[in-house]
């Protein structure tokens, strides 16, 4: 049950702890107030009980005709004490049961110097702030009620201090927890965002600010060092493969020259075809290793005119490509690289479906470009695999005439991601494949 209701994120966990801590403080304050009130109810009447007993004793020793003067003296000396002579019916109205009750040093039923405490109405029994009422019977049978005003509960200043203390403690803890949450969750959020975005569009190091608790700073430092190491490894790999490619092109060129000097034959023609395939492999591999990057600068591209120009180029070669778009669509990308990515996708559509269509639209903060065909499509289980380098749809490991090297989709994906976009393979309506490219609106 606890695991089910306990939040997963650190921020929500800290907020939950804050709420629980506040509830505990409120509960502690309520319990504290209850026990303080109980202490006053039980033991806060010692002095008042002493004054009441002395006043009633004076009346008990005074004859009935002289008690008026004594009452006047008591009222002058103890203005908070109210003493009245009452009728026996009052006790009946309060339902006296004979059960012993204590008021300070006095207990009902006890007789002292001929006077008796008949009944006690405790503090708050009649109403929340009502003072206690004591009924005494004098030796001559007279029944008196005594009432001490402004008593029966803790002093207001004490309760105010208690509430102020609990409130100050709650506010202080809340602010401390908020500060701790911001100081801890903020650096972790930055680290999570950087870790999630690293490698999606580029492996160039983007150092994050190292701040927050010591453990988070250590993690941020390790992440920054990791970025540098990964980027260094990739640069060394690219340089190594570029060097290999350069070294291989020299003997390939010599072989091509030698074959050109030979008389025409089937073996010569096949050898030249193999050399052409090897050269294309080297070019495609180096293009992929650049991760869609080139020296061309990013620029704002008007999507409708760009797509129409691309469609016109295909129409000029006798391969009509339909372009559907809306006005006022623009993205930030490298023009030549984006043209190459779309051209590769269109070529695949024309190859496998004999037709292609491009649709451009806006979806929220993204510009969407769909390359649509109605061929045999790609099974969903194979889509993630075919976006990886050197993966081909036919599953063959050998390269035959008319087949690619398994780098077309991977290169297009790298070009799109270099422009902060995404590439996704989807089903077309009515069957076929739709390659969806999405770029941030600029």
Write the layout of secondary structure elements.
Layout lengths: L1 H4 L4 H34 L2 H16 L5 H11 L3 E5 L3 H5 L8 E2 L2 E2 L3 E2 L2 E7 L11 E5 L5 E6 L7 H42 L16 H48 L4 H24 L9 E4 H14 L5 E3 L5 E4 L1 H19 L3 E7 L2 E7 L7 H7 L21 H11 L3 E6 L5 E8 L2
Parallel strand pairs: 9-11
Antiparallel strand pairs: 1-7, 2-3, 4-5, 5-6, 6-7, 8-10, 11-12, 12-14, 13-14
Uncertain segments of ≥5 residues (pLDDT<50)?
395-403
Structural class: alpha+beta
The number of distinct β-strands equals 14
Count of helical segments?
Answer: 12
Per the principal axes of the C-alpha atoms, what is the gross shape?
A: rod-shaped
Mean pLDDT: 77
| CATH homolog superfamily of the largest domain | Histidine kinase-like ATPase, C-terminal domain
Rg measurement, Å: 47 Å
CATH architecture of the largest domain: 2-Layer Sandwich
The percentage of residues in β strands lies in: 15-25%
CATH topology of the largest domain: Heat Shock Protein 90
Kindly, what is the distance between the CA atoms of the first and last residues, rounded to a whole number of angstroms? 47 Å
What is the CATH top level name of the largest domain?
A: Alpha Beta
> The biggest beta sheet, please?
5 strands, antiparallel
Question: Order of strands side by side in the largest beta sheet?
Answer: 1-7-6-5-4
How many individual domains? 4
Helical residue percent? 40-55%
